[in-house]
Structures are given as structure tokens and as C-alpha cells.
Design brief:
Elements (H helix, E strand, L loop, with lengths): L6 H10 L2 E4 L5 E6 L5 E7 L5 H8 L1 H14 L5 H10 L1
Helix pairs in contact: 1-4, 2-3
Length: 89
């Protein structure tokens, strides 16, 4: 099943100056490209939900708590990890 990118992620991508598309790899949610269309990397584990999908399925209050916990777990990530977090959380 292909991951559905919601408007939140597209808005974040625009702010960050990147392009996102559903990943070519089933393991990941999204592929990230620069504005020229050059592939950068894939990210977001497809086994887990993310902020925009939690809002859609459980509401904003629940999603905000999941976001808070995500940022605690992933503190000190690499540049790649921080970019994924900005796009999906």
C-alpha cells in the first residue's frame, strides 16, 4: 500500500524548500527531492503513523501528545532525521 501524503506534509515541504513524493521503497513513507528534482533520500518508517495521520484518525489533542513524545524519543537526530521530523511531525 502506498503512503498517502497529506496537505500538512506538502506545506512543510514547501516551507523547507524540498519536494516530497510517496516513497519508491515499501519500507519508507516519503522520498525527498531538491527543488531541481534530484533525489535526496527516503524516510519515515511505513510501519508507524505520523502527526497529520494522527490528526485525521484521532484528533488534534491526541496528535499533539504523540508529537511531543516523538520529539522526546528522537532528540539529537541527524540532519536527515530532523528533516523527516519537520515533514512528518
Amino acid at each position: 500500500m502506498t503512503y498517502t501524503i497529506l496537505p500538512y506534509t506538502f506545506q512543510q515541504a514547501k516551507k523547507l524548500g524540498v519536494i516530497v513524493k510517496p516513497s519508491r521503497f515499501s519500507k519508507y513513507k516519503i522520498d525527498i527531492y531538491d527543488l531541481k528534482g534530484n533525489y535526496g533520500f527516503s524516510g519515515g518508517d511505513s510501519r508507524y503513523s505520523d502527526y497529520p495521520h494522527y490528526i485525521k484518525s484521532h484528533g488534534k489533542e491526541y496528535a499533539d501528545e504523540r508529537r511531543r513524545l516523538y520529539h522526546i524519543r528522537h532528540k539529537g537526530e541527524t540532519l536527515r532525521g530532523r528533516l523527516i521530523a519537520e515533514l512528518l511531525w
